[in-house]
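Lab manual, section 2.4: Encoding a predicted structure.

Procedure: take the sequence of the chain (108 residues), apply the prediction step described in section 2.3, and record the output as structure tokens. A sample record is shown.
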Amino acid sequence: MKKLRPISPFLYSFFWDCDPEKIDVVAHSSFIMHRIMERGTYAAMRWLQQTYTDDQRCSFLEQKGYRVLPLRELNYWLLMSGVKDKRREILLDKSRKQNNVWQKRNSY
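Recorded output:
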């Protein structure tokens, strides 16, 4: 059985709807990245950058992030993860073209 790599306790408030002590940094990486990329504090974003490589963050953004993150946060994380301008514009366009009422909400 693999040893659980838990998230840092200061992140528990982002995972109020589940038991944060059972969240594994490796097994639940998409879940963690989604929550922190969308609602993270500065400290949480720094933790995310130190925990996951640019490649891991890029992989999440290209596979799932463009569908679930608001445009502002998506653009920020694409820039912070080193995604090239052309690829960044493609992902932002894909995100804009989604017919998702929640994506069009103003979350701030």
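Check your result against the sample. The two ends are 42 Å apart (CA to CA).
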